[in-house]
Design a protein that fits this description.
Blueprint: H1 5-21, H2 24-30, H3 36-58, H4 72-81, H5 101-121, H6 128-132, H7 144-154, H8 158-182
Helix pairs in contact: 1-8, 2-3, 3-4, 3-5, 3-8, 5-7, 5-8
Length: 184
């Protein structure tokens, strides 16, 4: 096995990650001019993506200390705080077979890490209602090192690694589609 599958996975998804960071939805979230209405749009886009992806990781039997922390309840709570009913439709249905929960979870856990950075650096969180509606952006990321250790262990075979990479790329495309849908 290569020095680090996580490094290989990061390299494989980097162009999709960069594209998502450059999406107008994200750029406005990071701008000083971001308002609560736009923050609501961001949460709605994340909610749509998580409705498609989270069941894939929730249904998997994770090893030992590598349990998954559901994000949909946090998003729904935040949307409710903003006095909005969360969407109940999925944008994209994943293929019936062949999706690796390891690749999907890599993206979802990475989103949690990125969310913590955003929470510290985005001006919208100076607004009281946005700060109150920030459960999703305040997720616990202490599971990341344990997840990475298990990722390296469980994705040793070439087939498993290929599926994890394809699934991580699929996950970024789901987010891209959700962002495009909510903020064309």
């Amino acid at each position: 096995m290569s020095a680090s599958f996580r490094a290989e996975l990061k390299t494989a998804v980097q162009p999709l990650h960069n594209a998502l960071e450059q999406h107008a939805l994200q750029k406005k979230l990071l701008a000083e001019t971001c308002d609560v209405s736009h923050y609501h749009t961001v949460l709605t886009a994340y909610h749509l993506a998580f409705l498609t992806l989270e069941p894939i990781v929730e249904d998997y039997s994770w090893p030992g200390t590598c349990s998954y922390q559901a994000r949909i309840p946090c998003l729904e709570s935040d949307l409710s705080t903003l006095r909005s009913n969360p969407s109940v439709e999925k944008l994209v249905l994943p293929p019936d077979e062949g999706i690796s929960p390891w690749g999907v979870r890599y993206v979802l856990e990475g989103m949690a890490l990125g969310s913590q950075w955003m929470m510290k650096n985005i001006s919208i969180f100076k607004h009281p209602i946005a700060l109150e509606a920030s459960r999703f952006f305040s997720l616990d990321t202490r599971r990341w090192p344990d997840f990475c250790k298990h990722l390296e262990h469980y994705c040793q075979q070439e087939y498993e690694r290929k599926k994890a990479i394809e699934s991580a790329c699929f996950s970024f495309r789901v987010f891209q589609k959700a962002f495009d849908f909510c903020y064309p």
